[in-house]
Amino acid sequence: MTSKQLVAVVLISAATSVGSVLGVSKYQQQQLASNLPETTSIFQNARYTGESAVGGPVVDFEKAATKAAPAVVHIKVRIKPKQVAAGPEDVQDNPFKDFFGDGFGDMFGGRGGSRPSPEQRGSGSGVAISADGYIVTNNHVVDKADEIVVTLNNKKDYKAKVIGKDPSTDLAVIKIEANNLPYLTFANSDDVHLGQWVLAIGYPLNLETTVTSGIVSAKSRSIGVNSRNSSSPIESFIQTDAAVNPGNSGGALVNTDGDVIGINSAIASPTGSYAGYAYAIPSNLVKKVVNDIVKYGATKRAYLGIMYGNDQMSEEDRAKNNVKEGDGVFVMDVAKGSAADEAGVQKGDFVTKVNGQTINSGSEMVEKIASLHPGDKISLTYQHNGVEKTATATLKGTSGTYASIKQQVVEQLGASFEELDKSKAAQLRLSNGVVVKDLGQGILTEQTRIKAGFIITKVNNTRINTIDELKAALKNAGNSAIISGVYPQQPQTEYQYALNDLNGQE
């Protein structure tokens, strides 16, 4: 059968980070239910305490709200209409196919055509972090934006530009041309404790400045939300029951002193609106990412060099590897030549402390490492065959060196990949290929209609057998490339997607 080609012209507007070390955890959705026995009354009689009962101290929210609210801004974004490449589903029901053959329609917008995506508008929140106009927000608030307008607490509007983005943490820095802005400072998120009172400040549901209160209900939470936009998500959220709704994204979570302890990023909800829990990126991680973006334009990410698995390990795997709660972070594998390897960590060990601080989960370890830079030295405590050892580890970048980490072209695709299984290749009569496993936010989803399961066989004229070959081919492609491949349902039909401006996010 003669192959048909589909060419999709793509503009870059987002990037994701691919990491070999920080680890991957799958999002496990939890449903909360309140089940009462039939004999249990939902009404309880009031209980009266004696005069000797002592209440807790009165918490003053007014001081914190008065200090913080003027520095939290409203962000409105506009995404212009774009031509989006057509996908295989656009041609499978071609009504003229039976009369004129498979090729009819190519010249009229079939496999060579595209569809317009309508204009989109959205809004979120941000936090001014300097008097001269630097603002931190969520990456998902501004990621695809063609136009960004910031409205201050005093109702003044400013056009903003993106300074840099980090999809792994869902953070971005934007800037407006203004002076003498009210701004907030970061508190030490390591000092945050369970039960601590906090305020969430933002612009939910396109309303005016809104302040809600709650407590810190958990720390170091990993919920999998960043895995939609990044191949190496970094999640160690502060969980709070302060009411947070759509539009709060990028807003401030502050302590009772009015200092930032987190940037609000996500909610756990079956409806999309507040349903009990919200999640904020801890301020220590925010501060590091923001400083990198302002100074370098991108994040300089450090890696320890281990794969871990105890956060989401099944009971079977726990038993197989003799992993118990409180043992630390189970090391599933160690990258050769990595910081952990050079420190003596081996497969099967347990990391228990970083810089003297006890580590109970992979997300907690990830937060500590992600707050550091390539070249930083850490004290690493681990258990090897039941014996505690402490060593100094020098963190490295993705290349195994101490050099600055730049976002790589393959990371900007916004997808995870796996090499084509030999049996599957034989079944499809293919000799090579790399499968698009999962699609997040990035080039492929923004400007093409490519679907998960697409098998990449070539980049330009270079055959692709492995993920490393895909990375190398894209790196060597320059500013543009054509990705060729097939879908398993139509292995004899080749599709092509043209990618342009590949270096737009360096």
Automatic annotation (TrEMBL):
Gene3D superfamilies on file: 2.30.42.10, 2.40.10.120
Protein's UniProt name: Type I deoxyribonuclease HsdR
Annotated family: Belongs to the peptidase S1C family.
Keyword Zinc-finger: no
Keywords (A to Z) from UniProt: Hydrolase, Protease
GO MF annotations, alphabetized: serine-type endopeptidase activity
Pfam family, one: PDZ_1
The keyword Repeat is annotated on this UniProt entry: no
GO biological process: proteolysis
Residues covered by the PDZ domain: 293-361
